[in-house]
Specification:
It contains six helices and no strands. It is an all-alpha fold. The protein has one domain. The longest helix is centred in the C-terminal third of the chain and has 26 residues.
Length: 171
């Protein structure tokens, strides 16, 4: 289960890759990072109902991600459909990243409402159960996430700025 650093970098990277260069770029990247972390708002349900069963439930499903995308499409309109797609991908990335990097725990309800079964690849545990780790281990996990996910994010930003086009470098 990645922490907000990994989710935010992946979400912002997807938005950067999907959207053309624009004047509000930083705001759009921040929105992508926020949406990529939004699925973990289910912790409010965990707190309210005092049951960890709510975490990685319906907010982590592909169906709910589709619903988020459709709401964004309705809110942004047809002219900004590309932004809705980018933000929908950012939201969806949360479930896919959790699915890919969960070894411990019960997995996530990826196919809710069609199945309450929980799924996980279980091949690599990234920042597993940070709430049980001592503060030094949490910081270490955050650093590992940053080192893993910041370089691809920076490569996407450089690519979008045209840094890899032929003839763009010094001759």
């Amino acid at each position: 289960m990645p922490m907000p650093v990994a989710h935010g970098l992946v979400g912002a990277g997807l938005v950067a890759a999907a959207l053309p260069r624009a004047g509000r770029r930083r705001l759009l990247l921040l929105a992508g990072a926020a949406l990529a972390n939004a699925a973990d708002l289910d912790f409010l349900l965990v707190f309210f109902f005092r049951s960890r069963a709510w975490h990685r439930g319906f907010t982590h499903s592909l169906f709910f991600a589709l619903a988020v995308f459709l709401c964004l499409l309705l809110a942004l309109g047809r002219r900004r459909a590309r932004e809705a797609v980018a933000f929908g991908l950012a939201y969806t990335s949360h479930a896919l990243l959790d699915f890919a990097t969960t070894r411990a725990g019960g997995g996530l309800e990826l196919f809710w409402p069609f199945s309450a079964d929980r799924f996980a690849l279980r091949w690599w545990g990234l920042s597993e159960i940070p709430s049980t780790l001592p503060p030094a281990e949490v910081l270490k996990s955050l650093a590992v996430e940053f080192l893993l996910f910041a370089p691809p994010f920076l490569l996407v930003l450089l690519w979008r700025r045209g840094a890899f086009r032929r003839g763009s470098g010094a001759a």
